[in-house]
What we know:
By secondary structure, the protein is of the alpha+beta class. The chain has 3 domains: about 1-115, DNA Polymerase III, Chain A, domain 2; about 125-245, DNA Polymerase III, Chain A, domain 2 (Roll), CATH 3.10.150; about 245-360, Roll (DNA Polymerase III, Chain A, domain 2), CATH 3.10.150. The chain is built from 6 helices and 26 strands. The protein has helices at about 5-20, 70-80, 130-140, 195-205, 260-270, 320-325; strands at about 1-5, 35-40, 40-50, 50-60, 60-65, 65-70, 85-90, 95-100, 105-110, 125-130, 155-160, 165-170, 175-180, 190-195, 210-215, 220-225, 230-235, 250-255, 280-285, 285-295, 295-305, 305-310, 310-315, 330-335, 345-350, 350-360. A 9-stranded antiparallel sheet has the order 14-11-12-13-26-25-24-18-22. Strands 6-2-3-4-17-16-15-10 form an 8-stranded antiparallel sheet. A hairpin with a 3-residue loop joins strand 12 and strand 13 (about 175-180). Helix 1 (about 5-20) runs antiparallel to helix 2 (about 70-80), helix 3 (about 130-140) packs across helix 4 and helix 5 packs antiparallel against helix 6 (about 320-325). The model has no long low-confidence stretch (mean pLDDT about 95).
Amino acid sequence: MRFRCERDVLxxxxxxxxxxVSGRGGLLPVLSGLRLVLTGDQLQLTGSDLDLTxxxxxxxxxxxxxxxxxxxxxxVDIVKALEPGAVEVEVSGEEARISCGRSQFTLRANPAEEFxxxxxxxxxxxxxxxxxxxxGLRQVVPAxxxxxxxxxxxxxxxAGEGTGLRMVATDSYRLAVRDLPGTAALGEGQSxxxxxxxxxxxxRVLGHAEDLQLELGEREASFVAGxxxxxxxxxDGDFPNYRGLIPQSQPNRLxxxxxxxxxxxxxxxxxxxxxxxVRLTMREGGVELMAVTQDIGQASEELDAGxxxxxxxxxxxxxxxxxxxxxxxxxxxxxxxxxxxxQALLRSPEHPDFLYLLMPVRVx
Length: 364
């Protein structure tokens, strides 16, 4: 196999494919590598850990068809370190040579036959709006759990909702819901559970994508954006009944400028050390934020705000509250509460398609 490609183009493709490369190299060493397949002027680079697979198609100056597996991290580091210009890659037997200008590197290559045969989702293809889907991912994915001992909560639920698509994630402390009206990727009542790690990678490749396609199979889902195909295994199991967690009526409602609340919270949380919550005291005309850490000190700040309801003090994990504020759309947010012990809802009055539910912290 032999081909030539501009350094920046090759480095970007190698980096993208390598993000799926396995951390299980000890179990199957070939998965620590990238599979390169050259046919004419078309090069396909593939990385996989068997649960997640990323393939990138690239147009190069092909010299000789072939395929091989090269060490992923080393190949990425080498190409990134080269001088700008054309990079030549040649694989012969168990040796891969990478050269650019006066720089030459030789790597051990493995036969492509050792790379696992990867299944691809076979199902209906649906077009998604890449910008809208990326925004939904940004709002929902951070709420998914990172604890692998509860695999169901590490996924994001994609469900048919009316004539649109609903995205839901929870780690049992907070819940994020985003509706994409008019995006009929699934029928009413249909749902799949996609690993949040895979969706994080989808979001990374959507930055400049002009189109996005979703292909759903029985056990896999594939996202195709331009020259990148990402395939992930779906999570088996039943997602929690999130609808039962969302209160139907909240008697207390605080409406406040989102940027002002973010800035005040950022300052006050400086004193929220050692898992100290931030207290929000909501009353007519405004809200006071306060954090008190024993033997260190305290901070407080008042903001003008609209408030309907009885005066109430509710405490939250400041990082979880900040995470919701950061992704909430619009200039204003509303915080709806029942009492200090029950879940609160963070919404945007201008954007009803987004909801963020947050459990309060009990304080004495």
